Amino acid sequence: MAGREARLFVLAPSHFCERARWALDHAGVIYREVRCAPGPHALIAIRLGTGTALPILNTGTQVIQGSDRILTWTGISGGDPDLEGRFERWVGPLVRRYLYSALLHHPSSKVREILLDGVPRPQALMGRLLWPLTRQRMIRGMEAWADARPGLERQVEAALDWFDAQVAGRHYLVGGGFGRADITAASLLAPLARPAACPLYRHLSLPFAVEDALRGWRKRRSLFWVERIYAEHRHSDK
Ligand SMILES: N[C@@H](CCC(=O)N[C@@H](CS)C(=O)NCC(=O)O)C(=O)O
């Protein structure tokens, strides 16, 4: 990577992007975060990688797409492929779908502003113009329909029941030290726990019923664990 600046392409509030960002920070990688607007992000991702999903890390010599691959590239130990796979395929997408089923239908949610936070001005302008279309695509793509929310809430409860059991009596998920499984679980649950290190999640305005659910869940062992792991191990304000 000598002489070339690594760049991490993200969607600002994405928890998969936070997983990659945390891994890079923890591994001490020097990089610049490049925030993309939803909509225009697809062109950037296609140009760099395959498909439209972020995060993508461009090290200067390599392009690595996906938070799992980026974590692997950092070499951080303490992985648990089964648990991380469940987070990647089940818990992460479910948390996202649940929150977007509220945010994309709540006029004062500030979701568009949060998605455009820190995006360079010309691209943010394009993101704003394209927003009605992007919003529809997001709803369709994630099946984040407003009337799906109660069912999704029950599914999130079930996921938290499962993870409550995983963290019972444990400080870390693998062995006696902090590692990649902890980064995976904590980052993908961060939108529910809203730790201080993730200020964007605190700026969203959620409908009362969702705010109420989140308040109740914060007392759970799993989200308490997320808050603690963030407080003890997330030392960057990026
Ligand atoms: N498994 C992937 C998931 C990445 C992902 O779903 N990224 C979302 C943001 S949370 C995204 O870029 N969505 C827009 C798109 O796919 O076009 C990873 O770990 O990176």
Main beta-sheet annotation: 4 strands, mixed
- As for the number of domains, it is 2
Distance between the termini: 21 Å
Uncertain segments of ≥5 residues (pLDDT<50)? none
Radius of gyration: 17 Å
**What oligomeric state is this?**
single chain
In terms of structural class, how would the helical and strand content be classed? alpha+beta
Helix content: 55-70%
Look up the CATH topology of the largest domain. Glutathione S-transferase Yfyf (Class Pi), Chain A, domain 2
Arithmetic mean of pLDDT? 96
CATH class of the largest domain: Mainly Alpha
List of distinct ligands in this structure: glutathione
The geometry reads as: globular
Quick description:
The protein has 238 residues and is α+β, with helices and mostly antiparallel strands. It has two domains: 6-74, 3-Layer(aba) Sandwich (Glutaredoxin); 81-233, Glutathione S-transferase Yfyf (Class Pi), Chain A, domain 2, CATH 1.20.1050.
